[in-house]
Amino acid sequence: MTEAEQIAECWREHLVASFPADCRCQAVSGIDLIHIEADTAGCVSAFLVRGGQLDPWRLAVLGLCYHHLAVVVSGLNGEARDYFSRLEKLAGLVFRTIRDATRPS
Fold first, then answer.
1. Which of 31, 33, 63, 72 is deepest in the core (most CB within 10 A)?
2. Residue 72 within any structural domain of the chain
3. Per the domain annotation, does 61 fall within a domain?
4. What distance in Å separates the CA atoms of residue 50 and residue 71, rounded to the nearest whole number?
5. Distance in angstroms (rounded) separating the CA atoms of residues 24 and 28
6. Which whole number is the average pLDDT over 86-103?
């Protein structure tokens, strides 16, 4: 499966998943779970809408989200961990796709 196919599949899974109820108004290590989800999903959505590209600002936001998601995932269990792990995977896939597309040949 290509990275583009993995992103599309993960994104479809994310769109049908419900935000974990026990994560509302919660933070892990000072990272607000609603904001990290919204920021990551917004960047991934923009990447998909823009044909696999992100502007520098969104790329920086996604980078911060990717870093924060690693912290968040380590502090969660069960359904919440699965939900945020998927977001972390999406952020990583998007980064690798952009990296590979911008590498000199």
1. 72
2. yes
3. yes
4. 28
5. 12
6. 92
- Looking at the structure of the chain, the number of domains it has is 1
Strands 27-28 and 31-32, how do they pair?
Answer: antiparallel
- HSE at residue 12, side-chain half, CA atoms within 13 A, is 5
Cβ contacts of 77 within 8 Å, gap of 6 or more: none
**How far apart are the C-alpha atoms of 36 and 27, rounded to whole Å?**
10
Residue 99: pLDDT band with limits 50, 70, 90: confident
Nearest-angstrom CA–CA distance, 2 and 58: 23
Q: What range does the domain containing 45 cover?
A: 3-100
Indicate whether 105 belongs to any domain. no
Summarised one tens digit per residue, pLDDT across range 30-84 is 999 999 999 999 999 999 999 999 999 999 999 999 999 999 999 999 999 999 9
Statement: residue 105 has pLDDT above 80:
no
Question: Buried (b) or exposed (e) across 78-89, using 16+ Cβ within 10 A?
Answer: eebeebbebbbb
Tell me the residue type at 35. H
